[in-house]
Amino acid sequence: MEDYSPNKIPNSTRIFNIILALFLIGICFYAGINDVLVYPGVRGSGSVELTGMPLLFFCVALVSSAINAALTVIDHYDKRDNEKSYKQMSFYLNILSIFAIILAFGYQFIINQESVVVIGNVS
Hints:
The chain crosses the membrane at residues 15-33, 53-71, 91-111. This protein has three helices and two strands, in the order αββαα. By secondary structure, it is mainly alpha-helical. It has one domain. A hairpin with an 8-residue loop joins strand 1 and strand 2. Helix 1 packs antiparallel against helix 2 (53-77). The radius of gyration is 20 Å and the shape is elongated. The model has no long low-confidence stretch (mean pLDDT 86).
């Protein structure tokens, strides 16, 4: 049986992950206070404004990503032999983030979709 050696995360990576986690939480608070998050479009396409339920889904993605970034720092200071647990939790948080982002933009697309059938008086 091999002797266990805890992983060591470089100081620059830990600082970057802490700043990233705080930045993501800050975006989430900003969006929550203003009740809107504008995702800019590219090359002439319009921007997407996330409000209501899509904003909530996007905030779930931001928070889970921030937790995932913080997990790297926590894992560095945790000297127990549980790297497999941290990798598994990181994997599930990534899946949750991707799923929440897809839900946010998909739900926003459905809300803003124009009706195909127009019911009304035709003159």
